[in-house]
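Show me any protein, fold above all:
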Amino acid sequence: MAELTGVGIGLGVAQGPVARIADPLPAPDKTASAQAPDAEKARFRTAVDAVARELESRGARAGGTAQDVLEAQAMMAEDPELADQVDERIDAGYTAEWSVVDAFAAFRDLLTEAGGYLGERAADLDDVAQRVLAQLRGVAAPGLPEPGHPYVLVARDLAPADTALLDLDLVLAVVTSDGGPTSHTAILAREKGITAIVGVSGAASLVDGETVIVDAETGTVITSPSETELEKAAAKARARRAAAAAPLSAGALADGTAVPLLANLGSPAGAAEAVAKGAEGVGLFRTEFLFLSADTAPSVAEQQAAYTQLLEAFPGRKVVVRALDAGADKPLSFLNDSEEENPALGVRGIRALRASEQILRDQLTALAAADAVTDADLWVMAPMVATVEETEYFTAIVHEHGLKTAGVMIETPAAALIADRVLARTEFASIGTNDLTQYTMAADRLLGSVADLQSPWHPAVLSLIGSVGSAGAELAKPVGICGEAAADPLLAVVLVGLGATSLSMAPSALADVRASLTRYTLDDARRIAAAALAASDAAGARAAARAAAEKENQS
C-alpha cells in the first residue's frame, strides 16, 4: 500500500479502479498538401466550425460555470487571428493538419508568455487544437475513457469540455497531477460535488485497472489498499451520504455559535439550487453576467429585472451583491478597454467604476428599485478596495441611492492591513480569498506555473485574514468569506477561528462545510487556526490544522 498526496476538494471519499484519459493524438508530419490551398482552408474551417458548435452544445447542456468556460473555448477556436496563422501555413503548401498543430502551438506559446488570464488559457487551447485535429482526421477526439464500469478518472489535468459533462454515475472520483484549488478542474469539480484531488505528485504512476481509495478530506490517494482500508473508506462514504441526507439546518459550531452558510452565485438561475441545498442567503452575487457579453452597459430596467428575480428567491434573507468587478481578466470595452502592462494591478474593480461613475450609479439605481419591491435583506459591496478613501466614496454613494447596507471586499493586502480603519467607515467586509492570496503571494491566480504559491492556507494569507477578523470583532462589524477558501471544510473551521462571521461558497460545498463546523466549538476553531498560523508554509499550515483538528475530535 502506498499513499499519494495532493489538494482535496471537499470531504468526499471514493474507491474504484483507475481509468486514465487517453494520450493526445500524435502530431502530423510536416508534409506538403496534395490539395489546393483553398480546399485545405475549407477543410480547416469546417473542422473549426464543428468543434465550436460541439463546445457550445456541451456548454448549453452543462450550464453554470461550465457553460461560460466552454463558450470561451468556442470563441478561442474561431479566433480570427488564429485562423490567419493557419491560413499562412496552408498558403505555404502544407496540410491543414500540420498547419493547425503548428499555428496553435505558436499561439499557445504567445499566451504562455503573456501570463495571467491568457497564460491560463494556453492549456484550454491545447484541447481545442486536439479537437480540430481529430475532426480533420475523422477520428474521435481524445477525452474521457469508456471502460464500461464506474471508475476513478486519472489525468494530468482535465479539459473544461470533459469536466463539464462528466457522467457522475460512472466517474467515482477525479485525480489530477496538475492544478491547484482554483484551477478549472477544482472549481468545476466543486460545483458538481465530485470527489477530487488535484496536484497529486505521483499520479502519473497510477495505471489502468488498479484499485485506489480517493479521500478528498485528507487529500490522499491510497494505492493497493487492504480490505480493512477499503471497508473504512466505504464506511466513511456512507456516513457522509447520511449527513448529506439529514434535514437541512443553519450553519453552526458544536457550541451553538451561528455561522451562516451562504451561496456564491453568478446569475439568478442558480438561486433555486442554492436554496434547495440549504443556503441561508447569498454571500456573493456576481453581477458581471449582465455586462460581459454586451457591447454597451445594460439598461437600468434590464438590471432591475435580474436583481428582482434574485431577491425574490431569498425573502427575509441576506443577499450580498458585488458591484461590477471588471478589468484584469474581465475587460469591458465600454468601461475600460485601454491596454495595460499588468491589468491585475491596473484600473479594475472600484477604480474602473469611479472612472465611469454613471455605470455604478445606474447599477445602484437598479438595485434600489429591486430592493423596494422585494423583501430580501440587500447588502452591496465594492470590489478591489485598497484605501480608506475608496471605502468612504463607495459607502457614501450607496447610501445616496437609498440602500442601507454598504461594504467592501478585502482582496488587497493594503485593505487587510488597515481593516480597522476601513471597517470604521462602512458596515461590513467580505474577504475574497482568491485575489487576496494572489496579491499577498505575488502569484497570478490564473497562472498554472505558480499554482503552488496560490494557496489560501499560506500563513501570510491567514495572518491577513486574522487581522480583518480582529478588526471586525473590535468594531462589531460582520466579516464574511466569499472566496474559494470557504468551500474547504477544514479551512472553513480555520477561517471561523480567525474571526469570520459567515462563509459563502458554491452551493455544492454547503453540506460538507456544515458537517465540518458541527465537529468543533469556537474555542476549538481558534486553537486550530492558531496551529495553522504558526506554520511556515501552506502545506505545513494544512497539516498542523489537520493534526489540531484530530486532537480536538479525540478530546
Observations:
- The first helix runs from residue 37 to 62.
- The chain has a mean pLDDT of 90.
- The radius of gyration is 24 Å.
